[in-house]
Amino acid sequence: MTRAILSRGGELLFVAFGVSVLTFLMIHLVPGDAAQVMLGAADASPEKIAALRHQLGLDQTLVAQYAHWIAGALQGDLGTSVWTGRPVIEEIAGRVGVTIELTVLSLTAAIVIALPAGCLMATLRSSTAEYAVRVLSVAGITVPSFWLGAMLLYGAAAVAPNMQVVGYVPFAQDPLANLQRMLLPTIALALPVVASLARVVRASMQEALGQDYVRTARAKGLTERRVIFAHALRNALIPFLTTVGIMAGYLFGGSVVVEQVFALPGLGRLMVGAIAERNYPLIQAAILLATVTFVLVNFLVDLLYIAADPRARRT
User: Fold this and answer.
1) Is residue 286 pLDDT above 80, yes or no?
2) Cα separation of 152 and 181, whole Å?
3) DSSP summary character for residue 144
4) pLDDT at position 310, please?
5) Is residue 60 left, alpha or beta, with left meaning phi > 0 and alpha meaning psi from -120 to 50?
6) Of 263, 267, 243, 273, residue with least CA distance to 185
7) Which pLDDT score, from 0 to 100, does residue 258 have?
């Protein structure tokens, strides 16, 4: 177990290093002078360009810039916002809580719905219910979150015009108002994930239900509910866990569009604003945070996979 964890940890560090390099190069190898682009044509005097280049460290070599940036990042210093003058880490810290809440709510809702839906599709083969669930799952995968969010807004305005569905209220300030405003964004973000997870559960359950240990459990006279949930589902959860890790990263990144639709002041809206303002230090830090979060989530899923399946410890 320890050896497997150390092996996965080494892979995590290697991937995190690669992500940091790609994030750095993504910004610094954009054609044109970054300082001139950030200032714009009106304010791009040679003196201002030189001052901003020095402030951002753009007058150094790429290797020196990366070394300085990554050394600061390891100490929690991701640079300073060009427009507000505040540390980037403070700007992100004030917004990331909203994105984390939306991601956790969406992932929880997706798991709670996908597990019984997948089991239903696996056990009710060639039935009307199984066909209906399959159609809904395909529809969920193909419907974009931003379109679904817009439709939910129109629907809420028609059905419950007094319902507050846009904006954000902190949970500590008013839990009911917080959940009311997070309901529609959670549905819009979770539905495509529900469809994907349900299909994974269905495929895994169908394979598990055909195994010898399931036939043995049925021969012993166990109830069908116990056979499904105590025996088959336990083994079907292993590929499900892997997919959950991937979907968690998708939700964290996919919240960008949903936050725009529902006016949520999260990391997604912060990134969109930074792109519009050409605030490169903030863009760079936000991308690094999102990608590293995705890598860490998948590392934790790997640990759960190892705990659930002892055979994975030998790989």
Assistant:
1) yes
2) 12
3) -
4) 58
5) beta
6) 263
7) 86
Residue 222 belongs to domain spanning: 96-278
Alpha-carbon distance 94 to 273, whole Å? 14
Q: What is the pLDDT of residue 160?
A: 80
DSSP H/E element including 68:
helix 62-74
Is 145 inside any structural domain? yes
In a domain, 101, yes or no: yes
Ramachandran quadrant class, 57 (left: phi over 0; alpha: psi -120 to 50; beta: rest)? left
Number of structural domains the chain divides into: 1
Q: What is the DSSP letter of 231?
A: I
Confidence check: pLDDT of 16 > 60:
yes
Pairs from 164-171 (Cβ < 8 Å, separation ≥ 24): 165/262, 166/262, 166/263, 167/262, 167/263, 167/264, 168/98, 168/263, 168/264, 168/265, 168/266, 171/101
- DSSP bridge partners of 87: 80
Cα–Cα dist 242/228, whole Å: 20
Instruction: Write phi, then psi, for 87 (nearest 5 degrees).
Output: -60, 140
Length of the chain: 315
Are 138 and 222 in contact by the 8 Å Cβ rule? The answer is no
Q: Which two tokens stand for residue 263?
A: 């006016």
